[in-house]
Structure to design on (113 residues):
């Protein structure tokens, strides 16, 4: 569960992170996870796809500037994964709700712009 979020800061299960993160099952991957600025490519999310979730939630940053490439969208669709993209604050609420409902969900959260 994600405890809180503010610009540049996220707390997951009581641990604070100050960089963009990904979540796969119960694991947090605290690393820069985009190869190209504000665009999510298939290479950036291959580990999320490999986990075979029902949903991938992408937090697009506080103002929502980050985008998902058409190639990544096609990959999700081909694998039967529902993509949910929202500004990060809303994406966190969506992630927590899906997690509480017992859905298999992975996520990537951009913490700043």
């Amino acid at each position: 569960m994600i405890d809180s979020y503010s610009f540049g800061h996220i707390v997951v299960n009581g641990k604070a992170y100050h960089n963009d993160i990904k979540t796969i099952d119960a694991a947090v991957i605290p690393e820069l996870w985009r190869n190209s600025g504000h665009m999510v490519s298939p290479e950036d999310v291959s580990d999320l796809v490999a986990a075979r979730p029902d949903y991938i939630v992408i937090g697009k940053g506080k103002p929502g500037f980050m985008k998902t490439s058409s190639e990544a969208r096609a990959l999700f669709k081909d694998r039967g994964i529902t993509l949910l993209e929202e500004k990060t604050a809303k994406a966190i609420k969506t992630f927590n709700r899906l997690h509480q409902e017992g859905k298999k969900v992975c996520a990537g959260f951009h913490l700043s712009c």
